[in-house]
């Protein structure tokens, strides 16, 4: 399936929309852990904890 983009989203449009949606955006915590703690190679993992409240 081809997706057609009829309009390019400009930075100004995003700046105008941000204050409108800001009250509805729920911020959730992100934690960083060491991958070896999970038996994986040397790396850092980031987990976004969507199920936790603010």
The number of helical runs is: 1
Number of self-contained structural domains: 1
Number of strands: 2
The percent range for strand residues is: 15-25%
Query: What can be said about the biggest beta sheet?
Result: 2 strands, antiparallel
Notes on the structure:
The chain is built from 1 helix and 2 strands, in the order H-E-E. It is flat and about 45 Å long. The chain is of the alpha+beta class and 54 residues long. It has one domain. The mean pLDDT is 86. A two-stranded antiparallel ribbon has the order 1-2.
In short, what is this structure?
The protein has 54 residues and is α+β, with helices and mostly antiparallel strands.
Relevant terms:
single chain, alpha+beta, 54 residues, two-stranded antiparallel sheet
What secondary-structure arrangement, pairings included, does this model have?
Blueprint: H1 11-21, E1 30-34, E2 44-48
């Amino acid at each position: 399936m081809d997706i057609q983009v009829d309009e390019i989203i400009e930075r100004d449009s995003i700046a105008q929309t941000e204050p409108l949606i800001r009250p509805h955006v729920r911020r959730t915590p992100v934690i960083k852990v060491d991958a070896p703690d999970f038996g994986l190679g040397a790396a850092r993992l980031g987990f976004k904890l969507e199920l936790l409240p603010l």
